[in-house]
## 1
Amino acid sequence: MAKTTLTISSKNYSSWSLRGWLLAKFSGLEFEEVVTAPDDASARAEILLLSSSILVPCLRHDGATIWDTLAIAEYLNEVRPEAGLLPADRIRRAHCRSICGEIHSGFTTLRASLPVNLKGHFPGFKIWSRAQADIDRVCTIWRECLAESGGPFLFGERTMADAMYAPVVTRFMTYDVKLEPALAAYASTIMAMPEMQEWIEAAKAEPADIEELEVEY
């Protein structure tokens, strides 16, 4: 069998790479990382939100090539159902898919205004009203999920939803977004995961910076 690979771009800046990588880690699938340099044209377009077709991350496994993050999530759920990437209950499973779809296709102002930057920290960052509306919606999603599940993850146990929202957690940390206690506890749970700690350590070791994402306010 051909080796399993996951193509990713910058660990410091790429939200989509983080999602795909976490999904693969959550699934327990063994894979080899293939890193595309941030100065690669396609990787840069993905990170800077300049591409309508996002081809990173890309999972290659057992003859399949999957490059959309939700498609990766669903594929991994098929090949590794024991990992519990989706809740067992039909209604909760539908809810999980819905909020994953929402973060996958929406929150464009949040993405543009608060770009992922794990090495950055901007206390007192000015958040514009349209971005605040996106933040409020994310908080509503988290609040409802945690109230239903009791935590510590959105659906109690770790699912694809936690991988999909992990980059948002990092945005909130980077830009000093204030959270109510229950949501702050969830954010801390995500940041404390061994997988997140591994990713962040690697992100901080990256030598390359993308000037457009080094905001100063």
Note: The mean pLDDT is 90.
## 2
Amino acid sequence: MLIAAAVCPCPPLLVPEVAAGAAGELDELRAACLDAVGVLAAARPERLIVVGPAERDGRGPHPQGTPGSFRGFGVDLDVRLGGWGEAAAEASERTLPPSLAVAAWLLERARWQAAPVEGLGVGEPLASERCREVGRELAAQAERVALLVMGDGSACRSLKAPGYLDERAAGFDADVARALGAADVGALAALDEELAAELKAAGRAPLQVLAGAGEGAALKGELRYEAAPYGVGYFVAMWS
């Protein structure tokens, strides 16, 4: 059963070494993300499952200890999912997709030791109903499951945004923010797949996995952060 969840954005720029000279611009966002991870730890889960968007080669399960890297972003920095103690030796032959590498960095920064960790890379084309089915399956894995959901909102909030300016983007992100703040699984489940794809929202599928996991959990939500630096919608929310 889902007993807690946190939602954080997944840009590699969240990692100061990647952001370099612009690192200070996201200090507030990093602090909010670390607070959200703290809420997960305080819930005392039996298992933490990290869910994030992934390209084809990064989809599927990633066991505790799976390595990740930011070398593709010009930084000599490696991480492991739940990489502490003997657990780190259980690395798989796979590597983490960027979204889960950012999550691994967050967990290392927070010195996560509250529960075993596993990852799941989700393809953005995954249909809404299948996303919710996956969420239900995750929530059923243990009596006390926590989710760390990585994903961005639209990438079309400004002229300099990765997807250029789209007037629909602000409304889409506002709907996501309201749903996260209210822990409204129905509203997350109702996000438009086609619109999300057109707005380059790299979080629609993970958010709908959360919608499935949260069914019947009756959690309360708190939206801690909402902004669109660089024209991309970022949210930090906690459900408990």
Note: The radius of gyration is 16 Å.
## 3
Amino acid sequence: MTIKVGERLPDARFKTKSDEGVSEISSDALFKGKKVVLFAVPGAFTPTCSMNHLPGYLENRDAILAKGVDSIVVVAVNDPHVMGAWAKATNGEGKIQYLSDGNATFTKDVGLEIDLGAGNMGVRSKRYSMLIEDGVVKQLNIEESPGQTVTSSAATILEQL
């Protein structure tokens, strides 16, 4: 069942990659007492994610943070090494957090998985964005198609802030 506005995010563990190596970060560390914009993509380095979705958040980072948001995070069902390489390749290091949900555990727990096996990608995340306050979903924007970046865009989040 898909998480809804007003519901609390489940406990989760994400992986992140930096020059120091791979580390784990909990949902509490990410969301407790904070206002966070989270957006999810079907896959790092995929065309729509890299050319349309992620750039909007990087370009609008300062405007989003100026609205009282503590951090912006992107989640994908990719391993932490891929997410770390994507952060470097997109010049996003230190601007937003690139989080790995490698086994789609969080993605499945919030009911936002999609089977892209026909495209040889397996189970991935639907494309969406959320505004989260102290671990509670305040806005949820799910794309109808993984190839679209309208409903889940940075522009939409900015309007909702």
Note: Residues 47-59 form the longest helix (13 residues).
## 4
Amino acid sequence: MSSLVLYGNRLSGHSYKVRLALVLGKVAHEYRNVALSTPRAERPADFRAASRWDEVPALVVDGVAMVQSNAILQWLAESQGVLAGQPGERQTLREWLSWESNRIGLSLPNLRYARGFAPQPAEVEAWLEQRCRADLDVLDAQLATQDYLLAGGLSVADLSASAYLWWAADAGIDLQAWPHIAAWLTRIAARPGWEHPDALMAPERGH
């Protein structure tokens, strides 16, 4: 049996998407919370050794480290069969993971950060909100035609694209304006083992 250690942070949707995949995929692992408020040079040595760019998440499998949340999700899907979609959907899965990293995985986290942690110039915040709303329109249109991003059902693409949406209100976004997204999140939350990131990523839930 492989030994897996996941390094993450309670406020990181990128960490959450990986831990949720491990939980829903019933992959045994140890979770270690990393306090990102700690200066980089003072963070735990084991984390700094595992994380190439000193960022979360980092997943260590039998001593081999991997980083970048969507790359980890792709590895879990293709190598471990975790929420991998149906045969023939692999390319579509990759496309949604790539879309997320450049679209909703960029716009919403940065808008949340600007409105909750580090205020930005008004024009920057306005651009982020405009981009976020456009990204939500894309998701809503896709989910108007099927229950999940892949026709075959829940996949790591859904976990990736939804990761920061659980905190949408922190960014000043009311998801009721996108009813298909709201229904999609309800379906994800109904999956056995699902937990909100505030619970699943709590430091005391580290093991």
Note: The mean pLDDT is 96.
